[in-house]
Amino acid sequence: MLMLVVLMLGQSTGVAATPAAPPSCQAAWAQAGNVWERAKRPELLRYCEVVGSARAKLSSGHTAVKAGLDLAREAERVLADRAEAFVLEGRALMALGDGQQAVTAFRAAVVRDARALDEPIARLAWARALAQTGQLKEAAEAYRILQPWVRELRGADREAAQIEVGIAAMTMGRGGLDDAVSSLRAATRECGNDLHSVAVLALALALDRRGDIAGAREALRMDRSMGDPRDRIEISRAVFALAPSDALAASALALEIAGERAGAHDAWQAAIEADPKGPWTDYARAHVEVDRSAAGWRP
Prior knowledge:
72% of the residues lie in helices and 0% in strands. The protein is mostly helical.
């Protein structure tokens, strides 16, 4: 009889009773006691089934994100005291572009479990949501924590995250430049298509800020597909959500090196106006002054 109950439970829970189960469900099963105690909590079985389905939807591509969101919210209704469903809700909302609600869901998850965002894909979505909603200091810290785990991400998330982590490091001022250069060099090796050009632009900016002007020029010259840097930045502006002024500064530097003084001057001025009290305002002003001097400008 006991063997029959075990078999029935294993079949009914699907993902929950397997090593591939969501982390919170694995912990729940470990804490649930013997098989009779598990049988007393059918809502736990249902929760784990729904959470497992939500995770699968979010892993299968953008077309299934709305279904994943609906499943995450269903899981919250089944058991509201667990974090996993709120993390999945936050990931889905961020994928749908709703950073504000995503932040709310992620904060609800952390209230229930301080380590709810330890998974790299969740940490990335959390950092992006904070950046999108203007909570920049917290976003920079989230990216700093994510940095050692970027390589565990997959595909486009991994490529974009390499750039985002590098930009986040630059928001720390000169003390973050070494980390920024390291992350952005990795991004130039791994990113393809439009993101590669964005990674090159960001790397050149980091190198120039570090005083390696020759390295910045070389990085830009090696990217033969650059085209107008402003177009490249516009295509992938989301990666600069944490520091929009850096998008302007990267474009300005590329235009300056290409000899397009008027466009560079306007972009440097826009970068200053976008972040007049930021860590790189004096750096941008120095470029404006050099440009004016070269052009014969007089006050």
